[in-house]
Design brief:
It is built from six helices and two strands. It is α+β, with helices and mostly antiparallel strands. It has two domains: 50 residues, no CATH class; 57 residues, no CATH class. It is elongated and about 50 Å long.
């Protein structure tokens, strides 16, 4: 887990007592576009369970899945894209990022 996820979780906790409609109205008043509003609402309201790539692979193996491929790129704002672009301190900022794996079930 990187600083991004830690801050995201703390902001979500801090906003938990504020009505979501109020937050949405405020964000709209700032002129934020619908795509960004969706992203912000998701990050500000949905609790996430963060796991490292190593932890995820361990869980997959336990349930008889094998990793075929890891997706290492994403849209411009994805944490995975920030990591793959070689920004300074990317590991501290984003940890493993959004681990995206293509897997198959082993019989």
């Amino acid at each position: 887990m990187g600083l991004f996820e830690i801050l995201q979780d703390k902001i979500r906790q801090a906003l938990s007592d504020i009505p979501q409609n109020f937050i949405l109205s405020y964000l709209k008043s700032l002129g934020i576009n619908n795509g960004r509003l969706y992203w912000l609402q998701n990050y500000l309201n949905a609790p996430y369970e963060y796991k490292s790539k190593k932890q995820i692979i361990k869980i997959l193996n336990k349930h008889n899945f094998r990793v075929l491929k890891q997706l290492n790129r994403g849209v411009k704002t994805d944490q995975i894209e920030q990591i793959s672009s070689g920004l300074p301190y990317e590991e501290i900022k984003y940890g493993d990022g959004q681990v995206k794996l293509i897997c198959e079930k082993i019989n």
